[in-house]
């Protein structure tokens, strides 16, 4: 089942997404002591900052945070997804004296600026740190071209059937070298939640939601809805889904 939750702006999304994440957190922590979540880059980090930072219901010390994809750059590089999350969320958390989450990043000692041959090793090592049975929640972005994680339209990784985490060095969006969760691994996770905002997403989301044959990566994630027990949902703003024939509600 794919659900679409739609709001007028990022502040409203941030509030509702926080409520959703806390519900997932609470149901997992009722049964075990660790909440495994993956986040993505882009504007999602800013929405998480708004919704989570001063939120007393987040049990940060029980969170283990992974990345749905990461750029193969040093962690302090402006293009690093970890770097953005550290600056926006982790540093302010530490500043408030809170016990922070555990973060699982790529091993930057394996990055060689000109030699890409260790990129597969970075992916392999990242895969070895992931829970074998999948994550509790994966927060996904959606690019204007319909990509998600670093799974791009028409890319050979859309057909990856063996690896849970793969590397690529031909990302059409810079920077070119990345690692990404694959569909194989996303299918093992409990809940998949997209956050997509802005009119630049309209054309690809029209294809995702109105064309049952769509091959866009975001559409292929929607097709996993029956495999993942918590389903697939979308948190969108009105601009992203204007004119698109879908049933919308609010969480
Ligand atoms: O690695 C990347 O290329 C980006 O992080 C990307 O995957 C992002 O998540 C989407 O393009 C959505 O970005 P916005 O939310 O900023 O529109």
From TrEMBL:
GO biological process: carbohydrate metabolic process; pentose-phosphate shunt
Any GO molecular function: 6-phosphogluconolactonase activity
InterPro entries: 6-phosphogluconolactonase_DevB (IPR005900), 6PGL (IPR039104), Glc/Gal-6P_isomerase (IPR006148), NagB/RpiA_transferase-like (IPR037171)
Pathway this chain belongs to: Carbohydrate degradation; pentose phosphate pathway; D-ribulose 5-phosphate from D-glucose 6-phosphate (oxidative stage): step 2/3
Location(s), subcellular: Cytoplasm
First-listed, main subcellular location of the protein, grouped into a coarse class: cytoplasm
Domain of life from the UniProt record: Eukaryota
Cross-referenced CDD domains: 6PGL (cd01400)
Catalytic activity: 6-phospho-D-glucono-1,5-lactone + H2O = 6-phospho-D-gluconate + H(+)
Glucosamine/galactosamine-6-phosphate isomerase domain ranges (all copies): 9-223
Residue stretches in coiled coil: none
Protein keywords: Cytoplasm, Hydrolase
GO cellular component assignments: cytoplasm
Entry keyword Hydrolase: yes
Family recorded in the similarity comment: Belongs to the glucosamine/galactosamine-6-phosphate isomerase family. 6-phosphogluconolactonase subfamily.
NCBIfam families the UniProt entry points to: pgl (TIGR01198)
Protein name, entry field: 6-phosphogluconolactonase-like protein
Organism: Pichia californica
């Amino acid at each position: 089942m794919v659900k679409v939750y739609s709001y007028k702006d990022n502040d409203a999304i941030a509030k509702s997404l926080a409520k959703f994440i806390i519900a997932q957190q609470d149901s997992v922590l009722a049964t075990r002591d660790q909440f495994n979540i993956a986040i993505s880059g882009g504007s999602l980090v800013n929405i998480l900052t708004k919704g989570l930072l001063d939120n007393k219901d987040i049990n940060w010390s029980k969170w283990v945070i992974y990345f749905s994809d990461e750029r193969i750059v040093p962690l302090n590089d402006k293009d690093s997804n970890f770097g953005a999350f550290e600056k926006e969320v982790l540093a302010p958390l530490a500043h408030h004296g809170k016990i922070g989450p555990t973060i699982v990043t790529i091993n930057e000692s394996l990055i060689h600026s000109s030699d890409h041959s260790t990129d597969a090793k970075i992916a392999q090592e990242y895969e070895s740190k992931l829970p074998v049975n999948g994550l509790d929640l994966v927060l996904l972005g959606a690019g204007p071209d319909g990509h998600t994680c670093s799974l791009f339209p028409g890319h050979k990784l859309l057909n990856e059937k063996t690896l849970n985490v793969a590397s690529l060095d031909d990302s059409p969006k810079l920077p070119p070298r990345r690692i990404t969760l694959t569909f194989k691994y996303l299918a093992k996770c409990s809940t998949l939640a997209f956050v997509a905002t802005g009119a630049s997403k309209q054309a690809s989301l029209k294809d995702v939601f109105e064309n049952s044959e769509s091959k866009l990566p975001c559409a292929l994630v929607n097709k996993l809805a029956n495999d993942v027990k918590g389903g697939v949902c979308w948190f969108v703003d009105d601009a992203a889904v204007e004119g698109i024939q879908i049933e919308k509600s609010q969480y």
